[in-house]
Structure formats: structure tokens, C-alpha cells
Write a structure and sequence with these properties.
- The protein is mainly β.
- Helices cover 2% and strands 54% of the residues.
Length: 316
């Protein structure tokens, strides 16, 4: 029975040690990586062109599918979709309310931010924003929503209760993704075509600093940061540098890059395991995930995944 199960792609359940789920823009599937062995243990079919992926508060896996205008909610215990939630036209990215009941979505073609009821899939609100909205981030208290507009180079600050834009904050060229410091005082924004990070003070909604990103031997135009996350203690940020094929470790207090780690081609998005011992880097043009030992600042393994991988989420 165990041998037969191993031959079936989707019968492998989430392992006790945890699983990394990697979305694929070309294969319409998630690749599952066992955290104990760092080996691929199967795939899960999804809707078309899976991109942004996230663990929900009730420990399911949600993946937005741009060409399906929807998200699949995957049960990690069975490896099957529980339901498909409409997200509006061309959903780029999303974030969830703290209780998981509302999905906040950036709809690229419509230049809108949508509020979606997670249970029914009903659109609760749609807000016009700048052209090509992408990154979405909800404040820890669930009261504030941040949307990045790539073309306008703006971060839209939205009051969730009124569904109104309260501030438009000018940042660097083509902002992509965002991370909040654990205390919620700063919002860090990656500027893909600016080779930089803009730091916004959330109390005043003003830019209080810019961190230039450099890689020795790389042209500035090849330093295209996208994915970003913070350590739980807020002391370090991890940034995927796109076409520069590196990830940067940044000391939050000094705003300085402390380490650069060579990974695969077009480092796009990142995730940490629960212990924050390993960083998983999705490489969109080499079709793999690089596992980085955080303490040593070194890549320890490259794992082949689906074609044009986009996002990664870890469930432990």
C-alpha cells in the first residue's frame, strides 16, 4: 500500500515536519516539498496560472490563479481543492483579514482593489487604485490595507472600515511587495525598477528612508527586488533581488545589507520555515527553489519544481 501510494502524485499528505508549497505559472499545480527531507513529495492540481500563495488562518493553502480569475483553497490533509473562490479580473496578489473572512485582492487590468467574502466569493467592495496594482498587505489589526500600484509608483493606504483611500505615498519605481515590521511602525516596499526599498512610517504615511540595493558585478537594471519578508523579531529583512540572482539579508536597525546569497535565476519570492533557520527562495527562470541556511548565509540545496514558479508558502 505504501509503495502504491508513493506512485500517486496527490496522495501524499502534509508531513508532520511541514511542507513548502510552490505555485507554478505554467503547470497549474503546486509542488510540495517535504521540509524534513527537502525532497519533492508530490504535486497538487490548481486553477490556471497559479501565482500568489498563502496559508490561511485555518491552516489551508490559498493560491490565486490569474488566468482563472479565482483562488483555489487546498486542504493540505488530502491535497485537494476544497473550493474555488472568485477573485475578479486578473488577480495579481492578495492578503487576508486576520480572521480569514475577507480576501483583499489586487486586480491588475481593472486597476482595482477588491474586498471578497472568503466564504461566498461575493465582492463586497471595489476601489479604484493606480494602474497595475500588485502587492497587497493588511495591517496586523486588520484596520488598514496597503496596495502597491506598479505604474503610478504609489502605495495606496486604505481604511478598511470605510473602504476609502486615505493616503497615496510616492515610493520608488515599480513597487511590488511589502512587509511590515512586527511593531507595525514601518512598511518596507520593494521597488523592482528602482533597485531599492522604500521605508514608510505608518503613523504619518510618509517615506522616511530608502535603501539602495547593490550586487557586485551586477548592473543596477538587473537588481529587481520583488519578494520581501521580516524575521519575527524584526531585526532582519530578507529580499529576493530578481534578475540579480541573489537574496539580500538586511539589518533593519542600520538599514544595511549584511549578506548576499547567490541563488537561482530570477529570485522572485521568499518564505522562512517556522524556526527561521531556512529561507526558501523561488527562482522563476531556473524552475527551482533554493534553500538557504540562514545562520550560515549559504545556499544548501536547489530543488527542481514546476515551470515558472512564482510563490511559496510554508505550513508546519
Amino acid at each position: 500500500m505504501a509503495v502504491a501510494c508513493a506512485l500517486i502524485t496527490c496522495c501524499t499528505l502534509a508531513s508532520a515536519q511541514g511542507t513548502a508549497y510552490v505555485s507554478s505559472e505554467k503547470d497549474d499545480a503546486l509542488t510540495m516539498i517535504d521540509l524534513a527531507t527537502l525532497a519533492v513529495k508530490g504535486t497538487v492540481p490548481t486553477c490556471k496560472r497559479g501565482r500568489h500563495i498563502q496559508v490561511t488562518p485555518d491552516r489551508k493553502i490559498m493560491v490565486a490563479c490569474t488566468d482563472a480569475n479565482a483562488a483555489d483553497v487546498i486542504d493540505p490533509a488530502t491535497g485537494k481543492s476544497l473550493r474555488r473562490v472568485p477573485l475578479g479580473d486578473e488577480p495579481e496578489a492578495f492578503d487576508l483579514s486576520p480572521d480569514g473572512k475577507t480576501i483583499y485582492v489586487s486586480n491588475e487590468d481593472a486597476a482595482e482593489a477588491s474586498f471578497i467574502d472568503a466564504a461566498s466569493g461575493k465582492t463586497l467592495q471595489s476601489i479604484k487604485v493606480g494602474q497595475e496594482p500588485e502587492g497587497v498587505k493588511v495591517g496586523a489589526d486588520g484596520k488598514t490595507l496597503y496596495i502597491a500600484s506598479e505604474v503610478a509608483s504609489l502605495i495606496h493606504v486604505i481604511d478598511v472600515a470605510s473602504a476609502k483611500i486615505t493616503h497615496n505615498v510616492k515610493v520608488g519605481k515599480r513597487p511590488r511587495r511589502m512587509a511590515l515590521t512586527p511593531d507595525g511602525r514601518e512598511l518596507w516596499v520593494t521597488n523592482e525598477l528602482g533597485a531599492s526599498i522604500s521605508i514608510i512610517a505608518t503613523a504619518t504615511n510618509t517615506v522616511i528612508g530608502t535603501i539602495p540595493l547593490e550586487v557586485k558585478g551586477a548592473r543596477a537594471t538587473d537588481i529587481t527586488p520583488v519578494g520581501i519578508l521580516m524575521s519575527r523579531d524584526g531585526k532582519r529583512a530578507f529580499v529576493a533581488l530578481g534578475k540579480a540572482n541573489h537574496v539580500a539579508f538586511i539589518d533593519v536597525a542600520s538599514r544595511k545589507t549584511t549578506q548576499l546569497v547567490l541563488v537561482g535565476k530570477r529570485a522572485w519570492n521568499v518564505a522562512l520555515d517556522k524556526a527561521e533557520a531556512r529561507l526558501f527562495v523561488v527562482n522563476g527562470l531556473s524552475d527551482d527553489v533554493t534553500v538557504v541556511d540562514v545562520a550560515g548565509g549559504k545556499a544548501i540545496k536547489s530543488i527542481p519544481v514546476g515551470r515558472v514558479p512564482y510563490g511559496v508558502a510554508i505550513l508546519e
